[in-house]
């Protein structure tokens, strides 16, 4: 068939428009292959688990899967735009040539193909004039129809995936995103009609373009210029996308199978300020610190899966999540678990739950340092519940083997209301450490960034009491934002010559601040104190 | 899906349609396609739709993220009255704007997208939604420094509440500073005897 750029007859005909359409099409093949892969989360989990030989850094790249998915999506949008624009020119010129409004050579080429024994080059069969001709081609040819349909699907997917819609109206995002099924099917058959044509190799041998170009009236009559024959390329896209489509289908089947596995709710605890804790058991469930799961409750919604960070430690025989009641689904779950009723609920009344996971990087790095600084901002404090509990279990079981000797924990939030349960956890740890005479193991600092005048009066009056008025903890709550420079310097002076790990779960701005502090407070030589910043992607 | 505000999605879709109309229009006009006049119309309609849709409306619940620099356009769009406020009117307007662009293949995609946006707006209108502008309240800068000019003139015991209002703020700031620990004081601490 020949390369479509080298093939003179064709390239002269459509000048730059066709290669400009074919190039992004090739890119689209590649990108559409890639886009399905990062969302196969079970596959990624499997890869992460089984590639124990690869370094953690490589494995951690797998956690940026959603960022990659979004980047590839933008590339698809860009290439679709170029492809469409190029083909718009292509269609316009082809229709013009067919209706006689073009250079004589091109008109002659366009006339070919619609008599018996001929093959066409120009796909515009009817001699309608533009713009009706163009519209006719678009709605009667398979490539036109599939092109319009899948581009519309792509646009709808993109507009419903913006941050506003995703964060506030997740269902719109999730259900509209399933238009990708139509997108992929349309993409696979988009080129099936083979209307992009070029001279056949046989015809290239017989009909010399250079000689016959100006002798259009003699074609078929003289020996050197028989009527040229054309054929179309077979569709190539499906080679690229069939693999990932199959993998994604497997992924959905795995999710479905996992969701059918029995999950038993062993305990439901209501915490103040609209938070509930679900403790569950599932056969064969293994977790690490800091991971998250997807939860579905068919009684509330048969199709929705929602992610929650695990708040239990791997050492416990159950796994738990803490859920804040903020929307439709969480409220439905609240009612389904009988939390709105006062009396004790029977176990059989609890709803069936489906769990997928766990996913996410394990934060095992915490255990490889002697001293750590853990910083949780707002809702970012949730994974630290799992970490702190796990540290405590390890300490109780085998204190000598535990490398970790000291934890500095910083909790920044506007108010502790939403995380009363976490304050309770800290209180529990505090009492247990006192019993073991190791009150210094964990030192935590809670910073309330959202205080106001009336609270300030209250604090000032109760300043000297033994327990903190807000949290009931022995270590006092502090107000405003921490002075990181002071913090780092104090810790550095207390632990000279150690490697101190700094772990953050919070906003980007804070990550930058802490990173800078780590660098400026670390000693330059190999001896001395070193702060190592770990930006965890919980 | 009880809490969904369809207008938010309709707004995103309409904004995208505006951009697609502009692109299709530029292709048709620059390529000098037959009847490229429709292309020129498409550019104008696209620009109008983009300007109308750029300022995001206020959500009924929760805070709304403004688009960058939208407050200037909000003032203009507010003036249009029912054209911008009522979503039925917007749905009809978008449908009307979309139709002429359907005569050219280059702008046909824009027509389809704007028609979809129009139908989502219709759905939003059925649900009783309407566009409210996001207006920023002028921040009152607390004139704290202004009132702390002199130390309290009355010796203790001092009268309650009214007279004690401003000095108590200093008190709190001073005591917090005394308690030590790393904290940045929001109010300049004056060395006062508590």
Automatic annotation (TrEMBL), chain A:
Cell compartments where the protein resides: Cell membrane
GO molecular function, one term: metal ion binding
Top-level taxonomic group: Eukaryota
Enzymatic reactions: NADPH + 2 O2 = 2 superoxide + NADP(+) + H(+)
Record's keyword terms, sorted: Cell membrane, Electron transport, FAD, Flavoprotein, Glycoprotein, Heme, Ion channel, Ion transport, Iron, Isopeptide bond, Membrane, Metal-binding, NADP, Oxidoreductase, Phosphoprotein, Transmembrane, Transmembrane helix, Transport, Ubl conjugation, Voltage-gated channel
Record-level GO BP terms: defense response; monoatomic ion transmembrane transport; superoxide anion generation
TM helices/strands, residue ranges: 12-39, 67-89, 135-160, 172-192
A GO term from the CC aspect: NADPH oxidase complex
CDD domains linked: NOX_Duox_like_FAD_NADP
FAD-binding FR-type domain mapped to chain residues: 255-365
Cofactor needs: FAD
Membrane topology classification: Multi-pass membrane protein
Purpose: Catalytic subunit of the phagocyte NADPH oxidase complex that mediates the transfer of electrons from cytosolic NADPH to O2 to produce the superoxide anion (O2(-)). In the activated complex, electrons are first transferred from NADPH to flavin adenine dinucleotide (FAD) and subsequently transferred via two heme molecules to molecular oxygen, producing superoxide through an outer-sphere reaction.
Record note on quaternary structure: Component of the phagocyte NADPH oxidase core complex/cytochrome b558 complex, composed of CYBB (heavy chain (beta)) and CYBA (light chain (alpha)). Component of the phagocyte NADPH oxidase complex composed of an obligatory core heterodimer formed by the membrane proteins CYBA and CYBB and the cytosolic regulatory subunits NCF1/p47-phox, NCF2/p67-phox, NCF4/p40-phox and the small GTPase RAC1 or RAC2. Interacts with NCF1 (phosphorylated form). Interacts with NCF2; the interaction is enhanced in the presence of GBP7. Interacts with RAC2. Interacts with RAC1.
Protein name stated in the entry: NADPH oxidase 2
Gene source species: Suricata suricatta
Annotated gene: LOC115283546
From TrEMBL, chain B:
Region annotated Disordered, chain positions: 134-194
Annotated compartments: Cell membrane
Keyword terms, alphabetized: Cell membrane, Electron transport, Heme, Iron, Membrane, Metal-binding, NADP, Oxidoreductase, Transmembrane, Transmembrane helix, Transport
Classification via InterPro entries: Cyt_b558_asu
Regions crossing the membrane: 12-30, 36-54, 91-124
Location, primary (coarse class): membrane
Top-level division of the source organism's lineage: Eukaryota
Cellular component, GO annotation: NADPH oxidase complex
Signal peptide per UniProt: none
GO MF annotation terms: heme binding; metal ion binding; oxidoreductase activity
One protein family per Pfam: Cytochrom_B558a
Function (record text): Subunit of NADPH oxidase complexes that is required for the NADPH oxidase activity that generates, in various cell types, superoxide from molecular oxygen utilizing NADPH as an electron donor. Subunit of the phagocyte NADPH oxidase complex that mediates the transfer of electrons from cytosolic NADPH to O2 to produce the superoxide anion (O2(-)). In the activated complex, electrons are first transferred from NADPH to flavin adenine dinucleotide (FAD) and subsequently transferred via two heme molecules to molecular oxygen, producing superoxide through an outer-sphere reaction.
Protein family: Belongs to the p22phox family.
Subunit relationships: Component of the phagocyte NADPH oxidase core complex/cytochrome b558 complex, composed of CYBB (heavy chain (beta)) and CYBA (light chain (alpha)). Component of the phagocyte NADPH oxidase complex composed of an obligatory core heterodimer formed by the membrane proteins CYBA and CYBB and the cytosolic regulatory subunits NCF1/p47-phox, NCF2/p67-phox, NCF4/p40-phox and the small GTPase RAC1 or RAC2. Interacts with NCF1 (via SH3 domain). Interacts with SH3PXD2A. Interacts with DUOX1, DUOX2 and TPO. Interacts with NOX4; this interaction mediates superoxide generation.
Protein name, entry field: Cytochrome b-245 light chain
Organism listed in the record: Suricata suricatta (Meerkat)
Gene that produces this protein: LOC115280360
């Amino acid at each position: 068939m020949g390369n479509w750029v080298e093939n003179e007859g064709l390239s002269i005909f459509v000048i730059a428009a066709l290669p400009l359409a074919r190039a992004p099409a090739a890119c689209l093949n590649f990108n559409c292959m890639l886009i399905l892969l990062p969302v196969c989360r079970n596959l990624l989990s499997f890869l992460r688990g089984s590639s124990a030989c690869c370094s953690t850094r490589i494995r951690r790249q797998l956690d940026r899967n959603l960022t990659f998915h979004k980047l590839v999506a933008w590339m698809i949008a860009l290439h679709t735009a170029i492809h469409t624009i190029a083909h718009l020119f292509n269609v316009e010129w082809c229709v013009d040539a067919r209706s006689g409004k073009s250079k004589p050579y091109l008109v002659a080429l366009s006339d070919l193909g619609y008599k018996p024994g001929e093959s066409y080059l120009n796909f515009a069969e009817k001699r309608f004039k533009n713009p009706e001709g163009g519209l006719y081609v678009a709605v009667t040819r398979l490539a036109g129809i599939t092109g319009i349909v899948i581009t519309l699907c792509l646009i709808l997917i993109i507009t419903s995936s913006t941050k506003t819609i995703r964060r506030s109206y997740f269902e719109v995002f999730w259900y509209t995103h399933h238009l990708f099924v139509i997108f992929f099917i349309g993409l696979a058959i988009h080129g099936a009609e083979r209307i992009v044509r070029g001279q056949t190799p046989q015809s290239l041998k017989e009909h010399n373009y250079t000689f016959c170009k100006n002798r259009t009236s003699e074609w078929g009559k003289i020996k050197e210029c028989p009527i040229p024959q054309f054929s179309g390329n077979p569709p190539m896209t499906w080679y690229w996308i069939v693999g990932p489509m199959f993998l994604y289908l497997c992924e959905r089947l795995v999710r479905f199978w996992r969701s059918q596995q029995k999950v038993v709710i062993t305990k439901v605890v209501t915490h103040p300020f609209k938070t509930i804790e679900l403790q569950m058991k599932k056969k064969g469930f293994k977790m690490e610190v800091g991971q998250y799961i997807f939860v579905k409750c068919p009684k509330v919604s048969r199709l929705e899966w929602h992610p929650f960070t695990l708040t239990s430690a791997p050492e416990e025989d159950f796994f738990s999540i803490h859920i804040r009641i903020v929307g439709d689904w969480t409220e439905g779950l609240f009612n389904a678990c009988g939390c709105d009723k006062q009396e004790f609920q029977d176990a059989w009344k609890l709803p069936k739950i489906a769990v997928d996971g766990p996913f996410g990087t394990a934060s095992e790095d915490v255990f490889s340092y002697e001293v750590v600084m853990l910083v949780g901002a707002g809702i970012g404090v949730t994974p630290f519940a799992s970490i702190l509990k796990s540290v405590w279990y390890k300490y109780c079981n085998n204190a000598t083997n535990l490398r970790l000797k000291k934890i500095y924990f910083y909790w920044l939030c506007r108010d502790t209301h939403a995380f009363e349960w976490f304050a309770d956890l800290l209180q529990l740890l505090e009492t247990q450490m006192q019993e073991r005479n190791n009150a210094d193991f964990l030192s935590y600092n809670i910073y309330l960034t959202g205080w106001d005048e009336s609270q300030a009066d209250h604090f000032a009056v109760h300043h000297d009491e033994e327990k903190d008025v807000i949290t009931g903890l022995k270590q006092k709550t502090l107000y405003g934002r921490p002075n990181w420079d002071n913090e780092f310097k104090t810790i550095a002076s207390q632990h000279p010559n150690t490697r101190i790990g700094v772990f953050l779960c919070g906003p980007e701005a804070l990550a930058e601040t802490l990173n800078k502090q780590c660098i400026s407070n670390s000693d330059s030589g190999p001896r001395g104190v070193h702060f190592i910043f770990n930006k965890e992607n919980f | 899906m009880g809490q969904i505000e369809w207008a938010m999605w309709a707004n995103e879709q309409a904004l995208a349609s505006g951009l697609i109309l502009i692109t299709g229009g530029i292709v048709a006009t620059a390529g000098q396609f037959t009847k490229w006049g429709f292309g020129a119309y498409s550019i104008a309609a696209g620009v109008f739709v983009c300007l109308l849709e750029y300022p995001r409306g206020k959500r009924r619940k929760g805070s709304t993220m403004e688009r960058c620099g939208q407050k200037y356009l909000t003032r203009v769009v507010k003036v249009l009255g029912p054209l911008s406020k009522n979503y039925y009117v917007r749905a009809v307007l978008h449908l009307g704007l979309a139709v002429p662009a359907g005569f050219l293949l280059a702008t046909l995609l824009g027509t389809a997208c704007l028609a979809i946006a129009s139908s989502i707006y219709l759905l939003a209108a059925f649900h009783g939604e309407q566009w409210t502008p996001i207006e920023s309240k002028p921040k009152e800068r607390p004139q704290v420094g202004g009132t702390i000019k002199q130390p309290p003139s009355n010796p203790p015991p001092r009268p309650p509440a009214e007279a004690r209002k401003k000095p108590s703020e200093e008190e709190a700031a001073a005591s917090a500073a005394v308690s030590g620990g790393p904290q940045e004081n929001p109010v300049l601490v004056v060395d006062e005897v508590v």
